[in-house]
Structures are given as C-alpha cells and as structure tokens.
Design goal:
This protein is an alpha+beta fold. The chain is about 35% helix and about 30% strand. Helix 1 (about 15-25) packs parallel to helix 8. It binds flavin-adenine dinucleotide and 3,4-dihydroxybenzoic acid (DHB).
Length: about 400
C-alpha cells in the first residue's frame, strides 16, 4: 500500500476538481487529483456548454484559455421563442457582457493537458472509497490498479459530483439538504448539422420546452422536455426531429434542418443544496454540494465559483496563516448558489409545461414571457443573471 502526502487531496476530475488543482498549482499549493473513471471517459463525457464571462475570464487568466479563445463561440444574446414569435435578449446592449459556448469536455481536456504538462499528480481509474478524520488529520483511502492506497493531506476537496462519497461521509445530524424535483426531464442530442440559428433559442410550447444550442458551426446540440421516466429507446431519430420541428418551427421563416444524431441521453431535473459545504477540513464543491436544473446553464459555472472561493481561502491560509476566509467558505458560496438556484428555478418554471396545466396556467406562461421580453427592466434582469452575476469578493485570477 502506498501512503502519499500532499497539501490538498482532491476527489474528482470534473470541472471543479481540475480547476481547483490548476489554480492551486499556480499559487504554489500542492494537490493530488483522484478520478475513478479513465482519462478518455472524462474527456468525452457530454454535458454543459455555456460558460459565463466570469468562468471564461478565470480560465483565460490562468493560462488554459488558448483553445477556448480560438474555438469558443462568443454570443451576445439569446432568443426566447413563444406563441409563434422570437424575441432576442441582447446581453451586450443590456448589461455589456456575453457568454461563450464551449463544451464542458473541452474545458476538461484543456485542464488535464495543463496538469499533465507540468507533471502534477492526477490518477485516473483511482476510486476514493472513504474519507477519514477530516476534523484533524484528513485521509483519503482509494483504490488504484487493484490495490488499496492512502493520501494524508491538510485538506480534502470533495469535487466528486452528486453521486460521490464525500457528502455521504457527513453524519446525518451535521448536514441539511434543500431539495426540489421537477416532474420532467431533458432529452439531449448532438447532431452533425449546422445550427439553425447562430444564437441559442429557448422555446416555450404547449407540447413542452425545447432548446437549440450548438457546439460548432457544424454541430447542433438540442434538447426536448420529456417525461421524467422517459425511455430513450422510445425516441427514434425521426421522432426526435419531428418533435423538435413541431415545438421550434413556430416562427415564420424558421426551418429546423435535421441531420445524423451521434449522441443522445436523458437528464433528470432537480434543485438541490447541501448546507453547510464545509466540515472541518473537508470542503464540498460543485455538484457534490448543489445541483441546479439545466435551464439556466449554471451548474459548471457554479462549480468554478466555489473553486474561486476555496482557492482564495487556501491561499490566505498557506501564505498568511489566516483561516478567516476558509471559515467563511459556506457563507460565501451559498450566497451565489441560492441566487443561481432562484434563477434556474425561475427559468425552468417559465419555460416548461408542468403536468395538469390548464389554459389558465398556459396564459400565465405566455404573459410572463411577454413581460420578460417587452420590459427593458425584466430583460436586463434575465441578461444579468444569464451572463453571470458579479462575484462578491475579489478573486486571484
Ligand atoms: P462532475 O462533473 O460530476 O465531476 C465529478 C467527478 O468526480 C467525475 O469525474 C466523477 O467520475 C468523479 N468521482 C465521483 N466519485 C468519485 C470517487 N469516489 N473517486 C474518484 N472520483 C470520483 N452547467 C453549466 O454551467 N452550463 C450548462 O450549459 C450546463 N448544461 C448541462 C447540460 C446537461 C445535459 C447536464 C447533465 C449538465 C449540465 N450542466 C451545465 C451542469 C454541469 O455539467 C455540472 O454542474 C458540472 O459537471 C459540475 O462539475 P463538478 O466537477 O462539480 O462535477
Ligand atoms: C446548453 C445546456 C444548457 O443547460 C443550457 O441552458 C443552454 C445550453 C448546452 O449544452 O449547449
């Protein structure tokens, strides 16, 4: 059995774990990253696509944004489509910011390449089995190549996603969960077809929500609201395109071109917050601590926001022996988390059809969308949240 020693033991090589490891490295703080899947698996896992400007700035200012700057698609607005009409929300004009469409797995690839490039430890197919003694002398027990190993560290960063072990290690009386489930899911596809619009379209329709997004000028990413217990086997490519067409091609002159679908999957929708996010020397970050429904495109961005807060706390601890910022970790993260929960819940409620909705609730959806797209104040509120609220505290990058 190998016994390793590091300053910060990081569990999970998703956006949270990899960004944290990278920012700590730049500050001269050592870490070891453990990831239970293979490198290829995490580099090809299809998930998010929308980066807030603050996320882009952190990646670019920390030296991993070269490809993102070259290949990312910068968008100055989005369209909200309902009742046969499209309405553009112009981020640039309303709040002077933009978003960037760049796939999560590309961010992951860039961060792994950087870490491998400067030879810092990252172990794939290394599964953390247990965390111990996180109040005093934290240890991570993990398995790699069929053997048991241990990491002794000053701090543990639980970046192991919603199904990870870190949150589960906390005794029931010390952690509280705030949760909401939605009675629907998203069916998402990637297709080899040029996007039918150069900006995202969020589409409300009586048959349910639909979203047009993209990954490149040749690849479209599209989502459809479906039942939460939907079986993907029931959705042939023809049925997916027909349903997308019915929901989206409501605006005159808009045609949705179909093409070969090369990836499809179903994503459940939930809102979830764990409180607190710190237990002695164990910190939860990203999806390990909170989940938002995808409609506001906030999950990855919130993970990076947590990383920013923890990095600052760890730098103050190691450089000035000051624990104050670490002790405020939960409070600082949750302030942003709850505002993003509110925004994601609001976008989800406005744009989806709930079971048993009647003509009254349909008219309320339409009235809300009409208000949001015709009032400058309401459009600016949507834009301000979508591009990413400003950070409350100064960052390092
Ligand atoms: P994860 O990405 O889940 O990473 C956790 C890692 O930990 C995984 O690699 C896992 O294998 C590893 N792990 C787990 N347990 C262990 C263990 N015991 N030992 C070792 N490793 C372990 N967010 C946005 O911001 N914008 C969007 O546009 C957006 N769209 C989305 C669309 C879809 C369809 C989905 C599913 C999500 C979307 N999200 C979006 C959310 C976003 O993908 C997540 O919030 C993000 O992945 C969170 O990153 P993370 O690092 O916290 O967790
Ligand atoms: C994408 C995902 C989202 O959740 C969203 O709100 C917008 C775009 C995407 O994968 O491109």
């Amino acid at each position: 059995m190998a016994k390793l020693r590091t300053q910060v033991g990081i569990i999970g090589a998703g956006p949270a774990g990899l960004t944290l490891a990278h920012l700590l490295h730049l500050q001269g703080i050592e870490s070891i990253v453990l990831e239970r899947h293979s490198r290829e698996y995490v580099e090809t896992r299809v998930r998010a696509g929308v980066l807030e400007q603050g996320t882009v700035d952190i990646l670019c200012n920390s030296g991993v944004g070269e490809r993102l700057k070259r290949e990312g698609l910068q968008h100055q607005g989005v369209e909200l489509r309902f009742d046969g009409k499209g309405h553009r929300i112009d981020f640039q004009e309303l709040v002077g910011k933009s978003i960037t469409v760049y796939a999560q797995q590309e961010v992951v690839k860039d961060l792994i390449a950087a870490r491998v490039g400067y030879n810092a430890p990252i172990y794939f197919e290394a599964e953390a089995l247990r965390v111990d003694d996180y109040d005093a002398e934290p240890k991570i027990h993990y398995q790699h190549n069929g053997e048991a190993h241990e990491i002794h560290c000053d701090f543990i960063a639980g970046c192991d996603g919603f199904h990870g072990i870190c949150r589960l290690a906390i005794p029931a009386g010390q952690i509280q969960f705030h949760e909401r489930h939605y009675p629907f899911a998203w069916l998402g596809i990637l297709a080899h077809v040029p996007p039918a619009s150069h900006e995202l379209i969020y589409n409300y329709h009586e048959r349910g929500f639909a979203l047009l997004s993209m990954r490149s000028p040749e690849i479209s990413r599209l989502y459809l609201q479906c039942a939460s217990d939907e079986n993907i086997e029931n959705w042939s490519d023809d049925r997916i395109w027909a349903e997308l067409g019915t929901r989206m091609a409501t605006r005159e002159g808009f045609a949705l071109k179909d093409g070969p679908i090369f990836q499809k999957g179903i994503t459940p929708m939930r809102s979830f917050v764990a409180e607190p996010m710190q237990f002695g020397k164990l910190f939860l970050l990203g999806d390990a601590a909170h989940i938002v429904p995808p409609t506001g495109a906030k999950g990855l961005n919130l993970a990076v926001a947590d990383v920013r807060v923890l990095t600052r706390g760890l730098v103050e601890f190691y450089q000035r022996a000051d624990r104050a910022a670490l002790q405020r970790y939960t409070e600082r993260c949750l302030r942003r988390v709850w505002k993003c929960q509110r925004f994601s819940w609001w976008m989800t409620s406005m744009l989806h059809r709930f079971p048993d909705e009647d003509s009254f609730s349909h008219q309320l959806h339409l009235a809300e969308l009409d208000y949001v797209t015709s009032s400058r104040a309401a459009s600016a509120t949507l834009a301000e949240n979508y591009v990413g609220l400003p950070f409350d505290t100064p960052g390092l990058f």
